[in-house]
Write a structure and sequence with these properties.
The chain contains 21 helices and 24 strands. The longest helix is centred in the middle third of the chain and has 31 residues. Helix 5 packs antiparallel against helix 6 and helix 14 runs parallel beside helix 17. 41% of the residues lie in helices and 19% in strands. The protein is elongated, with a radius of gyration of 33 Å. Bound molecules: 5'-O-[(L-methionyl)-sulphamoyl]adenosine (MSP). 5'-O-[(L-methionyl)-sulphamoyl]adenosine binds next to strand 1, helix 1, helix 7 and strand 12. 5'-O-[(L-methionyl)-sulphamoyl]adenosine (MSP) binds next to strand 1, helix 1, helix 7 and strand 12.
Length: 641
């Protein structure tokens, strides 16, 4: 790990470590783009930044997907993680470290963390009984379920009962409430903190931290039958990546983290479990957990089963990294959910990038080439319009700094665009094409060209954290070389006869209708999700073998005289004839059943249904909407195998 100057203030920022269960989508990209913009902004402002991201690779879900694909979990995650790293490389995400929870450095450190918490007396073994949501890798108690489903994602949960290790989370509830009291900025936005307070006040339960029914995880060091439950494993990444506990020098350099940037659905883990773990380990707490909102599509979360997952690679291929990053950072308000639509995205790209910024660059460079032989001239005159442009230009940076303190990326960009739009208006007000016709106004024309180039120079620095490739393009066209320095936005007259070099349009105009149609055509097909069926309790083979299935021929069928839903069948099996009643009158007309061969559970105890005896049961399959006969080709009365 690099050590930068000790004198620089340090800034440690993290993203969640993503599950490599499938390729990442625009939602993950959104979070990483925000973290990257902040890391770049802080570096530019002179901080010693450490930006960590990575992947959370253990757990039942990954194991199940790998099994389905017929590969080992390690093979499976290796492939997905390499795709994730490619995506971040394409997007030039400036992380300093990428941690994978399957790396040896992480595995051994998590085991040391487990041992330390155990030695502290914070871990004990007991019996776990509850519900498990595999997609979320979360345990729930009966009372936490919503309509019997996972309260986070609404999917079915599975009953889980096993011996497990527990972390004494309940012990830390009061200290965490006190933390929120003393440092309200620890968890933002405020609404999330209030939710967490309520959650803690209802009483924290100890946390199950191991599983023994699958093995794709880090072994519990004192009991290798168990693997560590994924959240203890996952959360530890923020310190294992820094070297905790065996490399205190590296660790102390950047810890405590300044910001854990996470989606709102995992705020609970980061603002309750994580501080409790750190309290147990007696190490300082991170300064801030920030919960950002979700990007929603069609009013809900993106999901493969709905086929509405937005693939960042498609958008980057068509519009470029900077256009996508600009859109994500400009469109959405930090902390709130936002709706993603292609139309909103394309309009932003056209209005703000092609029209406002792109035009400003091409107009400025074209005019300097035309009126000044391509050399940026000096400014020797000044009127109110010039003064207004200059004042706005040098006052943007402090506003951006204030916005960035609040993670208000959209406001930071809006403040920069105030200058971009002012510069475009400046051209319209100055009418350089008229000045150019009058030799006596050459000084004014030069001033106009100089000021436009200066405004663009400042814009090129201001946008660096959010779209650094565009920074480079603008500077190349303006003939500016050298390092991008934040403090150079504070002064106006810095250009010195640079030679402009007009290039391609930095953001070509998009034909929105055409793009919409093409994006629609590229849309992925809904993908089946592997959600376990909701079943009755498991039965043994011996239970099953007690059932005697036979083939029956329906000789007669009529409606039950006293029940609308029931049909009364006379069924022949071998030479035996008997009456069987089924609740399928809504699905079949009696006459269409006569002559059908059906499978019958022949040894079911007889039962009276509305006064008539039913001896046995005809098998029907229900597809959620209607019943179908379970087909058969055997002779009447034959055993079904
Ligand atoms: N592995 C855990 C995190 C462990 S951190 C110690 C996990 N992984 S995840 O792959 O599900 O990624 C979750 C994060 O991705 C969210 O917290 C959020 O930052 C980002 N997003 C995933 N879908 C998103 C949207 N639809 N919208 C915005 N962000 C989203 O949870």
């Amino acid at each position: 790990m690099k050590y930068m100057s000790e004198k620089k203030e340090k800034y440690y920022i993290t993203t969640p470590i993503y599950y490599p269960s499938s390729n990442l989508h625009i939602g993950h990209t959104y979070c990483t783009v925000m973290a990257d913009a902040m890391a770049r902004f802080k570096r530019l402002s002179g901080y010693d930044v450490h930006f960590l991201t990575g992947t959370d690779e253990h757990g039942l879900k990954i194991q199940q997907i790998a099994d389905k694909e017929g590969v080992t979990p390690q093979e499976y995650v290796d492939k997905i993680v390499s795709g994730i790293k490619d995506l971040w490389a394409t997007m030039e995400i400036s992380y300093d470290d990428f941690i994978r929870t399957t790396e040896e450095r992480h595995v051994s450190r998590v085991q040391q963390i487990f041992n330390k918490m155990n030695e502290k007396g914070d871990i004990y073994k007991s019996e776990y009984e509850g519900w498990y949501c595999t997609p979320c890798e979360s345990f729930w108690t009966e009372s936490q379920l919503e309509d019997g489903k996972c309260p986070d994602c609404g999917r079915p949960v599975e009953k889980a009962q096993e011996e497990a290790y527990f972390f004494r989370l309940s012990k830390y509830g009061d200290r965490i409430l006190q933390l929120y009291e003393d440092h309200p900025e620890f968890l933002l936005p405020d609404s999330r903190r209030n939710e967490m307070k309520e959650f803690i006040k209802q009483g924290l339960e100890d946390l199950c931290i191991s599983r023994s029914t699958f093995d794709w995880g880090i072994q519990v060091p004192v009991d290798p039958k168990h693997v560590i439950y994924v959240w203890l494993d996952a959360l530890s990444n923020y310190i294992t990546a820094l070297g905790y506990p065996d490399d205190p020098e590296q660790f102390n350099h950047y810890w405590p983290a300044n910001v854990h940037l996470v989606g709102k659905e995992i705020v609970r883990f980061h603002s309750i479990i994580w501080p409790a773990m750190l309290m147990s380990l007696d190490i300082p707490l991170p300064k801030q957990v920030l919960g950002h909102g979700w990007l929603l599509i069609d009013g809900g979360k993106m999901s493969k089963s709905k086929g509405n997952v937005v693939d960042p690679v498609v958008l980057i291929d068509r519009y470029g990294i900077d256009a996508l990053k600009y859109f994500l950072l400009r469109e959405y308000t930090f902390g709130q959910d936002g709706i993603f639509t292609n139309e909103v995205m394309l309009k932003r790209m056209n209005f703000d990038l092609a029209n406002d910024l792109g035009n400003l660059v091409s107009r400025t460079t074209a005019m300097i080439e035309k009126y000044c032989d391509g050399i940026i001239p000096d400014a020797t005159t000044e009127d109110d319009i010039d003064r207004d442009l200059k004042e706005i230009a040098v006052s943007v940076a402090p506003k951006v700094e204030a916005d960035m303190d609040k993670f208000a990326f959209n406001m930071a960009l809006e403040n920069i665009w105030v200058l971009v739009r002012r510069a475009n208006k400046y051209i319209d007000e100055k009418t350089p094409w008229i000045l150019a016709k009058d030799e006596s106004r050459k000084a004014e024309l030069d001033t106009c060209m100089h000021n436009l180039a200066e405004a663009l120079r400042i814009v090129s620095i201001l946008i660096y954290p959010y779209m650094h490739t565009t920074t480079e393009k603008i500077r190349e066209q303006l003939g500016i070389s050298g390092e991008v320095k934040w403090e150079d936005t504070f002064t106006f007259d810095m250009l010195d006869h640079e030679k402009v070099c007009r290039g391609e349009a930095i953001f070509p105009r998009l034909d929105i209708e055409k793009e919409l149609a093409e994006l629609e055509a590229l849309k992925g097909k809904p993908e089946e999700e592997n959600v376990p069926l909701e079943l009755k309790p498991e039965i043994t083979y011996d239970d099953f073998a007690k059932i005697d299935f036979r083939v029956g021929l329906i000789e007669k069928a009529e409606k039950h005289p006293k029940a609308d839903k029931l049909l009364v069948f006379q069924v022949k099996m071998g030479t035996e004839r008997r009456q069987i009643i089924s609740g399928v009158a809504n699905y079949f007309k009696p006459e269409e059943m006569v002559g059908q061969k059906v499978i019958v559970v022949a040894n079911l105890a007889p039962r009276k249904l509305r006064g008539l005896e039913s001896k046995g049961m005809i098998m029907f399959a229900n597809n959620g909407e209607r019943y179908e006969i379970v087909g058969t080709i055997a002779e009447d009365g034959k055993v079904v195998e």
